[in-house]
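Input.
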Amino acid sequence: MHRSIHVTGYIAASFGLHILLLAAVIFFASRAQHPLDITPVNIVNLPQEVLRQLPPLKRPPPMSVPSQPATQERQPTPSSVPAPSHFGDSDAVDLPKTAATPGKPDGSELGNAADGNKDSTIHNKEKNPLPFLSQTDIDALAKKGMPAKRQGENSVTLDTDEFKFISYNRWLKIKVENVLKYPELAALSGLQGTLYIQFDIMKDGSLGNLELLKSSGYKILDAEALRSIRDSAPFQPLPDSWAMERYTIRAAVLFYLSGAYIR
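Output.
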């Protein structure tokens, strides 16, 4: 092919590319010179004669707050009134219920504020705004109301400070609490309470007699506490150094604020 044909093709292609580049520059330049249309707004003051012809502006009346006498105390709303709680024969510990319950499943009630029962107390939110049980509260609730040892009975409490029982009781408490559950229905219904049980651990670690000494007032909580002891057996055999054929324990089982404890 002749050399002049190649030169002519090259010049034509170069000319076409330059035409396209120039068209692109012109297009984008025109777009930059015409930004988005913005409607200008002019703010002017109307003449006085025009203002006088306008209807008067009506303003809403200010809200009035009824004044109360200085001596009148503010009545608490129903949601701010804590529910009474019943924890036993002493009022040393004062903790709230998770929810107000109209009564007990068995139709009985341990007491209420209306009949003057000393077990009925009102929780003071200012002293303890958070309704959570501390370790001190748990121990205090377990000790109050603990049935006394029967005459001639050789039993100890689970929280005894007698040195030879401390290590065994600590292991026993952990094992039972791993089985003990807060019944879901009781938690949803706001049922709380403390009950007291007594049970025997035989020499080989098997469970002997199991007895409910004092009810919580709710059958569902009592049944769960007894079940947890049965399902925790067998236990560790009694040490030979104790020289005991049976180990009798009195313990408190607490169901409070969606937590279950044994002490």
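Residues 3-33 form the longest helix (31 residues).
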